[in-house]
What we know:
Layout: H1 2-24, E1 36-41, H2 45-59, E2 63-68, H3 73-80, E3 89-93, H4 96-103, H5 117-120, H6 123-128, E4 130-131, E5 134-135, E6 138-143, E7 145-150, H7 156-160, H8 165-178, E8 183-186, H9 192-201, E9 205-209, E10 215-221, H10 225-239, H11 249-257, E11 261-267, H12 271-278, E12 283-286, E13 310-319, H13 326-337, H14 340-350, E14 353-354, H15 363-366, H16 369-378, E15 381-383, H17 394-406, H18 411-429
Parallel strand pairs: 1-2, 1-3, 8-11, 13-15
Antiparallel strand pairs: 3-13, 4-5, 6-13, 6-14, 7-11, 7-12, 9-10
Helix pairs in contact: 9-10, 17-18
Amino acid sequence: xxxxxxxxxxxxxxxxxxxxxxxxxxxxxxxxxxxxxxxxxxxxxxxxxxxxxxxxxxxxxxxxxxxxxxxxxxxxxxxxxxxxxxxxxxxxxxxxxxxxxxxxxxxxxxxxxxxxxxxxxxxxxxxxxxxxxxxxxxxxxxxxxxxxxxxxxxxxxxxxxxxxxxxxxxxxxxxxxxxxxxxxxxxxxxxxxxxxxxxxxxxxxxxxxxxxxxxxxxxxxxxxxxxxxxxxxxxxxxxxxxxxxxxxxxxxxxxxxxxxxxxxxxxxxxxxxxxxxxxxxxxxxxxxxxxxxxxxxxxxxxxxxxxxxxxxxxxxxxxxxxxxxxxxxxxxxxxxxxxxxxxxxxxxxxxxxxxxxxxxxxxxxxxxxxxxxxxxxxxxxxxxxxxxxxxxxxxxxxxxxxxxxxxxxxxxxxxxxxxxxxxxxxxxxx
Length: 430
């Protein structure tokens, strides 16, 4: 009898032990009803844990923050989602990355009305998290390119006073003639991610944009008269010494950080690096100035407006298609982006430009001349076309830059051949 009691007691203890162990197990971060799991990249956990605490206090819904490294959010979700090991919400790259993820069925469409999508976010932010006219997330921070300047080499008054590109060029030529070993302006003309802003000013385009926001990948404007004129415009800058020959972004960045370069055309992702190098009080940012000679209608009907339009990118929050908490996830997206402090904290941690309209008028932003400059450029920024055919563009355009700027080949002939190379590459993509 004692033996039976001992067995029963042992069984109870064993079951109790299992229950105790189960209660002590760490949260794995998978989606489960009644608790949100937000998956974030390395460096964002502390920020989002604060938001999670605030959200639980406000709504009663607990939030678990899971940090990971290595694969992108979409790749992680593609691997984990079908087996039930995914989270509810991900910090996801926008533009083409988001479009590819949506095509794979990884994210849910976002109710625009629920987050005031069309009024809460800057236009580039809306474009960042949209695909085929629908929203698949909310933007947190955006990226673009603009002109950084060093106030120890060019005064704020002069830099901020450039009304046209001609003003900038005149100043640069004068600076270069008087300062041996230093340069007035540099940019990476070998990289079409940077140079395409000039093509846009002259009316060039990669793929035509339809009225509904989608792209017509069969309408390619790489070789139109405006785009050819833009390449000739940049070639003239190189030939006249406005920017040195054989210039890459890596070389220019070092010159700028070492105090040998007055202005560099570069991305907002380098804002923290440049601040650390030359000091926040010495750093300013201006948008790309208006180009008068690009504001015209060319012989083939191409219409340029003289406004350089930079490529943009960034990140936002997207809801996993495998979530067990779609309504709560939607509410969390609204909660985060309706609070300027959270969006600004993302900027402080990561350095991306806050994506909400209200942040543009925030005192912290208004007092930051560099951030103000990027907001000005954001008004003339476009997200890369979110189509798979874009992958066929970069290599031919890179080769075109070498042929025109380095090998001195005829710009029109090169751009015609480049368009055909893009068409051929798209056919290979299937």
